[in-house]
Design brief:
The protein has 7 helices and 3 strands, in the order βαβααβαααα. The protein has 138 residues and is mostly helical.
C-alpha cells in the first residue's frame, strides 16, 4: 500500500493498524509529482492521476516502509528533547552570568548591549568577574 505524504493529512492513515504482512510505503510528494511528469501529466493533478502515479511508485518499491519510521521518530524525538534541555540550560546559565555581570559592573550592558557576543565582553566575563581581582589589575 502506498501513501503520499501530504502535510499532516496522511498521518491518520499511517497510524492505522494494518493487517500483519501488509507493507505500507510512505511516498515523497516530489516523487509522485515527478512520476506524473514522466507520464506526461505534469500540470494536471487529480486523484485518479495521483493514484496512477502512486501505483507505479509502489510497484517500483519506491518510498519508505512505515514500520521503520517508529524507531526513527523515537530517536528524533529523543535528540530534540536533548537539544531542548541543552538550550534551556544554556539560556539559564547565560542569564545568571549576565545578572552577575550587571551586579559587578553596573551599566556594562548599556555600554555593551551584547556582552557575551563581543570579545571584550567575554574578556570581562572571564577575567574580571571577581571584584578583588579587578582592583588588583588596575
Amino acid at each position: 500500500m502506498g501513501i503520499e505524504a501530504a502535510g499532516h493529512y496522511h498521518r491518520p492513515v499511517l497510524d492505522y493498524r494494518w493487517p500483519i504482512g501488509w507493507e505500507v510505503l510512505e511516498l515523497n510528494p516530489g516523487h509522485v509529482a515527478e512520476q506524473r511528469r514522466v507520464a506526461g501529466r505534469r500540470r494536471v493533478k487529480t486523484d485518479a492521476i495521483d493514484l496512477e502515479a502512486i501505483t507505479e511508485l509502489v510497484l517500483a518499491q519506491r518510498g519508505q516502509v512505515i514500520t521503520e519510521r517508529g524507531a526513527l521518530f523515537g530517536e528524533l524525538a529523543a535528540w530534540a528533547a536533548h537539544r531542548s534541555r541543552r538550550v534551556t540550560t544554556r539560556t539559564a546559565t547565560k542569564n545568571q552570568l549576565l545578572g552577575q555581570l550587571d551586579r559587578a559592573f553596573p551599566g556594562l550592558t548599556r555600554a555593551l548591549p551584547d556582552v557575551l557576543g563581543t570579545k571584550i565582553g567575554r574578556l570581562v566575563a572571564a577575567e574580571f568577574t571577581d571584584p578583588p581581582d579587578c582592583r588588583r589589575s588596575v
